[in-house]
Structures are given as structure tokens and as C-alpha cells.
């Protein structure tokens, strides 16, 4: 059907994924694949293309389109959001009974047979649509002030918790990107940005564009491979000059790797980044125990860097993720994936510890207080206590929380 798509009416659908409505246009959630497909179909296949994002537009659907789609492309994200894809397909079948429905994206590529059976779509598209990949996203379909860019596809690593090497088995690298740039804020979606064999020339392009004020800032959604930074520390200087903000590296291994991670952090600091601007991806609810993860958290506190919350959820099998961060009732493995080394209580505790610690790092304080955050303590008193150490502050603030020690009770 895709080969016979010329001159068709095409509807692109982003399912109602469990993303906060305020984050619908966030740089981490833009349906970039659909936007590239839109550009390709409009320019090369003479298609009339429309996009609907079910989470934000479902109620007004009847007033949006004045055409009946011949083919519908539904994107998918993680396997644990498969039910949202299934609902989008069911909705499409009910609304457009004669349309041909294709599901693509991460879930479709990792579990194609399950996707076909579970969603009832007409076709599953696996991997990257090569023809569409060559096109810039159609930003006329969304309201954002930034641009998504890839300089590479694939990843040289084979991390057991990642599915990139399945979806994009071959690495491909751009030599230049300056002709792609249409906006002043850039977000790179590379799976391993620094692994691009042409990374130095690309960074030098960005540096020149920044000097010419054609770009304002850059950000890498997946962070940076700290091992490459350690091997090539001059890349840190180039990243800083190119205007990269919020640099992130990963600490997925054991506590014993702390010296290696500190060396990677030092590369960024020596390149001009402040410690509190740096964040560490911390994968938990996985093989490493809560106790060891707490040691890693406290080490990050000593380094004065932030932590990016990464709750592990298997990508290569179907299951439901009904984790509710707001409920006070305990949840079980029937609600969401809980690793055998972890419990619902420990997951919530670690997430809470990360959040409190990050607030301390960002605000340059030695303790956290919910009373201060929720303004139950006056600004005058909060300001007075701000520069106190934990031992002094706890005499005045009953709920003072110390990030420098292990917390294992809720």
C-alpha cells in the first residue's frame, strides 16, 4: 500500500500516550517521525497530509478535517504503551472504515507480530522509512520554537536495556548539517551523538553558526557518551563553544565506577560547565540494588551534579505500565514492571530522593524542606535559613531532609 500512496489523502496520528498535556510539545515527545513523513509525502508523493495528536485534539476531531483519509499512519513509542496504540487504531477503524491503517515506530519495530495482532492494523512498518528520513520535519503541523535534528542513525553500543540496535541496526553518519538548520534552537535526537565519525567538523559548523547568531542553543536529548568524552576531552570544549546546554552522561554501572564517572564529569567542568548544569542518567529498578543506587545518588550529591530519573521498563516485551506517581496506595507488579531486586516502596523512595536532591543542587542549599517548597514557611524565614547546613537547619525546620545520607523509609 505504501508504494501506491501517490495523490492520496493521508492522516498521521499520534496516540494519546500518557504524557502530561503541558509536555505535549516538549522536546522529548515531538512525533518527529510523523513530521518527516509529512514532508516526504507532500513534496514527493503529492499527498494531502494532516496530523492529529489524540491527547490534545480528540474532543474536537470532527471540526479538524475536511477530507476522508485513504491511508492512516499511527506512530508508536514504547512497548509498555502498546494499548494506547491499539486504541488509536480502533478509533481510526471506527471513524474511517475504509482507510488502510499502518503502524510504525518503536513498538512496531521491536514487536511487529504482537503489534499486528494486538492493534488489528492492516500493516506494520518496521524500522526507519529511508525515503522520509532524508526530509526535514514539517513544522507547520506543530507549534514549537525548536528544531529536531539527527546527525546519525544507529549506535555502536549494544546495551542490554536498549532497543536502538534492533530498530537501527546499521550506523549512518552525516558529514554536515548546516544546510538542515531552519530554527535557532536545536535538539539532537542522535542515539549516540559523539559517536558520529564526523563529530568534530559538525561541532565546528555549529560554533560558526553560533558566532553568526544563526543558532542560540543546542541540546542532546540522549546526552553524551561519557566514555568518548573521556577519550577525547577536547570534544567537551567544542560542545561548550557550540552552545550545548544541560549536558548529560550516564552512570548505568555499579558504584565502583565512580572514579570513571568523575573523570567524565571533570571533562565537562574543565570545558566550562558548572557542576549543577550537569546531569547523570541513573537507571534504577534494574540489576543494581536500592542500597547501591543510594550510594550512587549520594556520590552525585558530593559532586554537586543533578540526576535524571530513569526508571527501567523492559522494551522487548509487552506489558502494561500503570505506574501512578501520585497514588498513596501501594502498587504491585500487576500494575507496572517491578524488578525482583526492587519493590514499589523502594522505587517511590528513590524517585523522591532524586527529586529532593536535585532541588538542593539547583538552589545551592544543603537540605530540602517540603514546608519551604510549598510556602508553609515565610519567605523571610526561608531566606534566613537558606545558607544553613543541615545540622543547623533541622533545629528550625521540622521537615529538613539531608541529601548526604541514605533514606530508605517513606
Description:
With 410 residues, the chain is of the alpha/beta class. It has a domain at 1-140: Rossmann fold, CATH 3.40.50.280. Helices cover 34% and strands 14% of the residues. The protein has 16 helices and 13 strands. The protein has a five-stranded parallel β-sheet, sandwiched between helices. A three-stranded parallel β-sheet has the order 6-9-10, with no helix packed on it. Strands 11-12-13 form a three-stranded parallel β-sheet. Helix 8 runs parallel beside helix 10 and helix 12 runs parallel beside helix 13. The longest helix is centred in the C-terminal third of the chain and has 20 residues, at 344-363.
Question: How would you concisely characterize the structure shown here?
Answer:
With 410 residues, the protein is an alpha/beta fold. 34% of the residues lie in helices and 14% in strands.
List the helices and strands and how they pair.
Blueprint: E1 9-14, H1 32-44, E2 48-53, H2 54-57, E3 71-76, H3 82-95, E4 100-105, H4 106-110, H5 112-119, E5 123-124, H6 130-133, E6 147-149, E7 152-153, H7 164-167, E8 172-173, E9 185-188, H8 199-211, E10 217-220, H9 226-231, H10 234-241, E11 248-250, H11 258-270, E12 279-284, H12 290-303, E13 306-311, H13 344-363, H14 370-373, H15 379-385, H16 390-393
Parallel strand pairs: 1-2, 1-3, 3-4, 4-5, 6-9, 9-10, 11-12, 12-13
Antiparallel strand pairs: 7-8
Helix pairs in contact: 8-10, 12-13
List keywords for this structure.
alpha/beta, Rossmann fold, 410 residues, 3-stranded parallel β-sheet, 5-stranded parallel β-sheet, 34% helix
Amino acid at each position: 500500500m505504501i508504494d501506491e500512496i501517490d495523490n492520496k489523502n493521508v492522516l498521521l496520528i499520534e496516540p494519546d500516550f500518557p504524557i502530561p498535556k503541558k509536555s505535549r510539545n516538549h522536546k522529548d515527545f515531538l512525533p518527529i517521525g510523523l513530521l518527516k513523513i509529512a514532508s516526504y509525502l507532500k513534496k514527493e508523493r503529492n499527498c494531502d497530509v494532516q496530523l492529529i495528536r489524540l491527547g490534545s485534539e480528540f474532543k474536537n476531531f470532527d471540526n479538524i478535517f475536511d477530507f476522508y483519509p485513504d491511508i492512516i499512519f499511527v506512530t508508536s513509542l514504547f512497548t509498555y504503551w502498546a494499548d494506547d496504540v491499539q486504541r488509536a487504531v480502533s478509533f481510526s477503524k471506527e471513524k474511517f472504515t475504509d482507510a488502510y491503517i499502518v503502524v510504525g515506530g518503536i513498538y512496531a519495530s521491536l514487536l511487529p507480530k504482537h503489534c499486528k495482532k494486538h492493534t488489528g492494523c492492516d500493516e506494520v512498518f518496521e524500522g526507519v522509512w529511508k525515503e522520509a528520513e532524508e526530509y526535514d520535519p514539517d513544522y507547520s503541523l506543530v507549534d514549537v520554537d525548536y528544531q529536531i535534528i539527527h546527525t546519525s542513525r544507529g549506535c555502536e553500543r549494544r546495551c542490554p536495556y536498549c532497543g536502538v540496535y534492533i530498530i537501527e541496526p546499521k550506523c549512518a553518519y552525516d558529514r554536515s548539517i548546516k544546510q538542515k538548520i531552519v530554527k535557532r534552537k536545536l535538539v539532537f535526537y542522535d542515539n549516540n551523538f559523539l559517536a558520529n565519525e564526523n563529530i568534530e567538523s559538525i561541532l565546528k559548523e555549529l560554533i560558526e553558526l553560533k558566532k553568526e547568531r544563526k543558532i542560540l542553543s543546542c541540546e542532546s536529548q540522549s546526552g553524551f557518551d561519557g566514555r568518548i568524552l573521556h577519550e577525547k576531552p577536547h570534544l567537551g570544549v567544542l560542545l561548550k563553544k557550540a552552545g550545548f546546554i544541560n549536558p548529560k552522561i550516564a552512570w548505568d554501572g555499579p558504584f565502583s565506577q565512580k572514579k570513571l564517572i568523575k573523570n567524565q564529569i571533570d571533562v565537562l567542568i574543565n570545558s566550562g560547565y558548572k557542576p549543577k548544569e550537569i546531569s547523570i542518567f541513573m537507571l534504577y529498578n534494574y540489576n543494581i540494588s536500592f542500597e547501591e543506587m543510594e550510594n550512587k545518588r549520594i556520590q552525585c550529591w558530593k559532586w554537586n551534579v543533578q540526576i535524571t530519573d530513569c526508571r527501567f521498563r523492559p522494551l522487548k516485551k509487552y506489558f502494561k505500565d500503570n505506574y501512578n506517581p501520585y497514588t498513596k496506595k501501594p502498587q504491585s507488579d500487576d500494575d507496572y514492571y517491578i524488578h525482583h531486586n526492587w519493590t514499589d516502596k523502594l522505587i517511590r523512595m528513590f524517585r523522591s530522593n532524586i527529586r529532593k536532591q536535585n532541588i538542593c543542587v539547583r538552589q545551592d542549599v544543603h537540605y530540602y524542606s517540603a514546608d519551604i517548597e510549598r510556602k508553609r514557611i515565610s519567605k523571610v524565614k526561608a531566606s534566613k535559613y537558606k545558607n544553613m547546613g543541615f545540622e543547623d537547619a533541622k533545629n528550625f525546620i521540622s521537615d529538613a531532609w539531608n541529601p548526604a545520607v541514605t533514606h530508605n523509609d517513606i
